[in-house]
Amino acid sequence: MIKSFYFNTLLIFLVTFSCLALGAEEAVPADSTLERDMGYFYGFSFGNMLKDGGSPNVDVESLLKGLSDSLADNPPALADDRKEKVYQEVRARQLRTQEAKKAVQDAQEKVALAQVEINLANAEAFLMENATREGMQTTPTGLQYEVLVNAGGKRPLATSRVTVSYIGSFIDGSVFDQSGDKPVEFGLDQVVAGWTEGLQLMGVGDKFRFYLHPDLAYGAGSVGSIPPNSLLVFDVELLEIR
Predict the structure, then answer these.
(1) How many CB atoms lie within 10 A of CB 25?
(2) Residue 84, H or E segment
(3) Which of 138-156 are b and which e, b meaning 16 or more Cβ less than 10 Å from the residue's Cβ?
(4) Minimal CA–CA distance to 162: which of 192, 202, 193?
(5) Confidence of residue 92 (pLDDT cuts 50, 70, 90)
(6) How many angstroms separate the Cα of 67 from the Cα of each of 5, 17, 57, 61, 99?
(7) How much of the chain, in percent, has pLDDT values that exceed 90?
C-alpha cells in the first residue's frame, strides 16, 4: 500500500489540531482579519516543519498548489509512483536532519562531560593549595573555612532554623548569589551539606568564609548559573537562631 502523502498528512494534522483547540463553533471564524492571521499562522508553522524536516528550500509555488488542491478536495497532481518517490526523499531528509542534530548533541555532551571533569580537578587543586594558607581550617569532611569575625555567640544545632546574610562566589571571585539587604531564614536540614556542617561551627554574630568542595555543594549537577562540580565560596554571617 502506498504511504500517505507527507504534505497532506501534515496539513491534516494542523487543521485537526486547530479544530480541536478552537471548538466546532470557532473552527471557521467570521472575522476576515482573523482568517488572514490564521493563514499566516499555519504557513509559518508549516515553514518551521519544513526546516525541521530538512527541506527549507522547497518550491513555494508547488507548495501553494498542493495546499490549494488539498483544501479544494482536488485529486493530487502527482501519480502514485511519484508520490512514493517524493515521500521516500522527504523521509530520507528527515532522517539525515535528525542524525545531524544528534551528532551535534553528542558532541556538546562530550564537551560538557569533559568540562565537569576539568571543574572537579580545578576545585581539588584549589583546595589543596588553599589548605596551606594561614588561618585556614579543614574539617574531616573536607570543608575548609576561615573565621573572619569571632563574636562567641550561641551555636545552632543540626535541627535549628537560622537567619543569615551571605555572598556566594566562584573561585575567580565572581558573585553568583547573595542575600543583599534581606537576610534569609532556613532550617539547617534544608541546605547543602557544607552549609549544614559549617553553620554549626559558627556562633551568633560570627562571620565565616566557607570553601565548599563540589561534594559538599551541588556535586556534578548544575543549579541555575552554577556549573557542575563547581567549588563554591561563601561569606556567611550568622545573625540569629530561631
Answers:
(1) 7
(2) helix 80-130
(3) eeeebbbbeeeeeeeeeeb
(4) 202
(5) confident
(6) 12, 17, 17, 10, 29
(7) 44
Q: Give the angle 142-144-148 at the CA atoms, nearest 5°.
A: 165
Helices (H) and strands (E) in the chain, counts: 5, 7
* Distance of alpha carbon 27 from alpha carbon 24, whole angstroms: 5
Asked if 211 contacts 168 with a C-beta cutoff of 8 angstroms, the reply is no
pLDDT at 19 exceeding the cut of 60: no
Entry field: residues in the chain: 242
DSSP for 170-208, please give it. -TTS-EEEE-TTS-EEEEGGGS-HHHHHHHTT--TT-EE
Nearest to 164 by CA among 183, 178, 150, 147: 183
> At the topology level of CATH, where does 129-241 sit?
Chitinase A; domain 3 (3.10.50)
Distance CA 146, CA 134 (A): 9
Grid cell digits, residue 222: 548544575
Question: What's residue 104's pLDDT?
Answer: 85
The distance from CA 155 to its chain's CA centroid, rounded to whole angstroms, is 38
Burial track 58-75 (b if 16+ CB lie within 10 A, e otherwise): beeeebeebbeebeeeee
Distance CA 84, CA 204 (A): 77
**Where exactly are the structural domains of the chain?**
6-77, 129-241
CB atoms near residue 106 (< 10 Å): 10
